[in-house]
Amino acid sequence: MPTSRGKNLLFNSSMYAILIFASLLVLIPVLWMLSTALKPAQEVMVTPPQWIPEHISFEAFSRIWKDYPFGTYFMNSTYIVLVSTGISLVFSALAGYGASRFNFRGKGSFLTFLLITQMFPSIMLLIPFYKVLQKLGLIDTHLGLIVVYISFSIPFCTWMMLGFFQGIPKELDEAAKIDGCGKIRTFVQIILPLSLPGLAATAIYSLIVGWNEYMFAFILTTSDNMKTLPVGIGQLNGFYKIVWNDLMAASIVSSLPLIILFLFLQKYFISSLTAGAVKQ
């Protein structure tokens, strides 16, 4: 009959095996992408495939900047995503704070409506967005994509910020009111500094959504100088030939900003996942 120590050892071994398997599922495609990007062209399609390149080459990383308008795609994505994230943060913070502190008619319906908007497949909104943006003359513009990304981000970001604001005691608002602070000053000087982890987590979510979005950027932009990174990378394929190492190098470079950002802000993001898990 297995002892308690034996059961723990079996449980820990099983957990490690599952974690290693899950990690391999995630890491193998990434490592293969990196391996392909570092191979010279003649080694990319060799049989059998090789994990480690015989000759490491950085030509693909150099070529994507020289032979393609990759810098334009990169700047377009950076501009569109930063602006849409900034606007989403402002509106979602205000909406989340208002919903957490004030009771008003239709509050429950408003929050439910925000949640329901996230339940529909985004392709359903493609034609309505196209028609509206065409009417406003915003097709193939940065502003058009910013409007679309804001509409995606604000509902879910509002719910994220609502959870954080609900975790901040309302007694702080009352104490600030007694000290003579108005509602706006209380929000800006007292509540916002305490909700920095929530703002960071919300910003990461909004950045990831906007940075990786492909379908709307593909349909709503037509000229090369307006395309974003996902669309630009998708169009690196030729009609008769796919330059795999260029494609993989472009994918790695496009992933780096999000990876770096996540490394700096991961403590806020992880704390957001556990926020509210324990109530006292």
Annotation keywords:
about 280 residues; mainly alpha; 13 helices; about 0% strand
Oligomeric nature of the chains: single chain
Number of strands: 0
From the spread of the alpha carbons, the general shape counts as globular
Low-confidence stretches: none
Mean pLDDT: 86
Largest sheet: none
Find the structural class using helix and strand composition: mainly alpha
Strand content: under 5%
Describe this structure in words.
There is one protein chain. The chain has 280 residues and is mainly alpha-helical. Helix content is 73%, strand content 0%. The protein is built from 13 helices and no strands. It has helices spanning 4-37, 41-44, 59-66, 70-101, 107-116, 126-136, 142-166, 171-178, 183-194, 196-212, 215-220, 229-234, 244-274. Helix 4 packs parallel to helix 7 (142-166), helix 8 packs across helix 9 (183-194) and helix 10 packs antiparallel against helix 13 (244-274). It starts with a helix and ends in a 6-residue tail after the last helix. The model has no long low-confidence stretch (mean pLDDT 86).
